[in-house]
Amino acid sequence: MLNQINGLHHVTSLASGAQENNDFFTKVLGLRRVKKTVNFDAPDVYHLYYGDEQGTPGTVMTYFPFPNARRGRPGAGEVGTTAFSVPTGALPYWSERLARFGVQGLTPAERFGERRLEFKGPDGDGFALIESDDDRAPWVADAPAEVALRGFHSADMRLSPRGAASSAELLRFMGYEKDDSANGVTRFRVPGGNEAQVIDLTETSGPMADQGAGSVHHIAFSVDNREKQLEVRKALMDTGYQVTPVIDRDYFWAIYFRTPGGVLFEIATNEPGFDRDEDTAHLGEALKLPTQHEHLRSRLEERLAPITD
């Protein structure tokens, strides 16, 4: 069993428009855009990162906004809901605020004794706010500090019964422990991890998901450094998983593998961080390009639609 994984690092999804995506996360949810760069494999598409002041692992939602991308179809084999922590008592504020912004799908609920508010993003993305005793410092923009988002609480993977069973086994191998189970949902938690240490597995008998705008592309787990990442990679490969070589993503190093349940997992390092090419006071302001795409800057600046903050 592994002991290097801290919890979530980031969650990466697909969107159909950069401006709408930026406005939702910065103006509706009150997160900070901590990086404006491009997709390594499709540099004419933005890669936008939103999180707390520094883009701390466990707070960062990232997006590839492919212009006019078709909507994804929800189903098995995907992360169906990404949940953020808010302070206890904050949900009435968020219920009113999200309704005022016209956010769809507002549904109050409770799971494992925690109050939650479920809702949809601009492309039908599944989100929830969950009240918890979370003392992480928020990024304070439009939302007051006493109710602002604290970072991720959890991610909910929607899986077939067979996929749920195999994913539970994988999570245990990754250092997660079963926390609770009820109503077709099993909760896992990594002990001693960061505040984003919860994964829920929800069983569904429906069809497989069809990825598109509003779908989670992959979910990333945090390790402290490259040494621990290599330990995880070796252990996964020794267990039979097909794991990519280490890839430099500028702000972290990454490895990827596909789970038996169909979800793409990433293991990402906490180093070097988002301030490697911008000081903290100006994160997310300038267009930052990977070294291999810097020669395309003039063309990309013409093709990428400007984002108005």
Automatic annotation (TrEMBL):
Residues 7-132, 151-270 form the VOC domain. Pfam families: Glyoxalase. GO terms for molecular function: dioxygenase activity. Keywords: Dioxygenase, Oxidoreductase. The keyword Oxidoreductase applies. SUPFAM superfamilies: Glyoxalase/Bleomycin resistance protein/Dihydroxybiphenyl dioxygenase. Transmembrane segments: none annotated. Its EC number is 1.13.11.-. It is an enzyme of class 1 (oxidoreductase). This is Putative ring-cleaving dioxygenase MhqO. It comes from Tropicibacter naphthalenivorans. The lineage of its organism: Bacteria, Pseudomonadati, Pseudomonadota, Alphaproteobacteria, Rhodobacterales. The gene is mhqO.
